[in-house]
Amino acid sequence: QVRLVESGGDLVQAGGSLRLSCAASGSIFSIATMGWYRQAPGSQRELVATITPSNRSNYADSVKGRFTISTDNAKNTVYLQMNSLKPEDTAVYYCNGRLISGYVYWGQGTQVTVSS
Length: 116
Description:
- This protein has 116 residues and is mainly β.
- The chain has strands at 2-7, 11-13, 18-26, 31-39, 46-51, 57-59, 67-72, 77-82, 91-99, 104-106, 110-115.
């Protein structure tokens, strides 16, 4: 079992920054990839960024150059630094942990709202 708890969502003006955190607990040794996804109202959940234990990262084209995913292994935490936020970044952001077996765990989500 893996538990993921997100935090850091907020209301911010366009051009501003936020840092999301995802604290992992449980059988974290079995996690192959951590990631952030987001879901806007009326839209499907989409990939934002992923990172592997070897710190290989991958980003959606829409956030490249603005968002950075990182990990703090000592704290079992994954971060998503979001800069130059746009109104279209407004969504519920979910932390994702994909196990070596392929099973996926999700956090409860944190709301990010960017006002114009």
